[in-house]
């Protein structure tokens, strides 16, 4: 654990400050406070994050806090195959409940994607659009197949505002993978992802009010450029994961639960392995289609291979080939 040397900060972005940050003419960070004007929508997304955290395993057990993956996964490194992430940690038999959680989580990511497209600079959205074009429009976060995803990347998702549920039809669904987190922090690091930018949205930030917000921790650092983004709810951040970045430890009160620290949010971050997993999945689908075509014509691939093998052993064919 290392204390922050405040004197080395070049920018300290306060809880009510937004901005675009450049280095050498290149955009490196975007911070938008009060990004969503509907508090009830922020609450819906925050509730979705909470139920995912309560029911799914953490992918970073070595770090403080909890981070759960959502959407498509490349699977384990030893035997990975493309599939919806398998991370249910409690009452796995309650299939209907977990399907509903998948749907609400995917709807939350769809809402974040709509918000990002409305607010973030074009170059960030173009970067994600290029990634989505690479993997194909039918690879989206679709609530584990429950959102009527079409080949154009569009489907339907629902948002609950108060007691009313709104369903959006023909809406663009979110990129295929992301994470939801609570009280999560990680040392300074960088990452390789199949897109240049990552996007996060903080849905909740509460702390012991005996201390000022700046002392409560959970702040986001872009160490590459000496930037601290102070933690605050309803904050949209876009950064480049290749740059050194990290999150500071939160101020926790283990005795008084009324003064507990809570910070939750979600982010578009993608494993570098997902791109290859999708490619292999598509190749598998192509082979399946070819096999179905052969079976439809009355011949299996095995039967055709066997027939060709017999021809190769035929004396008549061998003699014909010799004469030619």
Automatic annotation (TrEMBL):
Domain of life: Eukaryota
Name this polypeptide is given: Uncharacterized protein
